[in-house]
Amino acid sequence: MSNLANEPELLSRVEDGIAILTLNRPAARNALSFSLMGELLEAFARLDPAVRVVVIAGNGPAFCSGHDLREFRAAPDRHRYEQVFDRCTALMLAIRRCPRPVIAQVHGVATAAGCQLVAGCDLAVAESGARFATPGVDIGLFCSTPAVALSRAVGRKPAMEMLLTGEPIDAEEARRIGLINRVVPPSSLAPEVMALARQIATKSSAVIAMGKEAFYRQAELGLEEAYRHASGVMVRNLLEADADEGIDAFLGKRKPEWRG
Fold first, then answer.
1. What pLDDT digit, counting tens, does each position of 211-241 carry?
2. How far apart are CA 85 and CA 88, in angstroms?
3. What's the CA angle centered on 67, arms 220 and 38, to 5 degrees?
4. Per its UniProt record, what InterPro entries does this chain match (predicted)?
5. 119 and 105 share a domain?
């Protein structure tokens, strides 16, 4: 199902140093078409240096319903399938490697690759009525790629239960297992996300970028190697101008003036 004529599949705006990327395929419940994933990739590649935080939201009744199954049936071809999943992988890696924190603003449902998108973001805030699922097993298509992000965001047992049953979980359960950070009333969703983004945007962008990279890198390592890597990052961090400024500001009981 395509968008209305001349309607962009992705809306983008910047407010207070926060880039808000809005999936705009409401009639298709914001399914991740090949072109929409391409637009998201381009948006991450084009982020203005002044942007400090990225928010991913969705228009219409759902955050994101996953891949566009109509596209799969329109071109049932191995090469096309490979192109779709290569692009999806590139998108998830772009989110992970983005030096800015990425927040998912979730309403309605986040299913299959939509759930993957939530799990792949650094933070996620959901309205109380949101639902999350990896229901591919119900249509003979195990959610193997969503499992990559999901299994890194929650424990293995909760991830496998979602993957094997396809049953949706509510927002409170998603928060309990670590898929999302906060559950808020629907009317408070956008304001809460922006408040969180603005709070993060007050920090040093250079330090945040260094810390985000280190967080994910150490998680891939064994314990001793993780400590060695993190220690090296701490040393580099202490040599940064913003660390000098932050420590001096703390000791001088004043607000820091970050240089970024």
1. 999 999 999 999 999 999 999 999 999 999 9
2. 5
3. 75
4. ClpP/crotonase-like_dom_sf (IPR029045), Enoyl-CoA_hydra/iso (IPR001753), Enoyl-CoA_hydra_C (IPR014748), Mitochondrial_ECH-domain (IPR052377)
5. yes
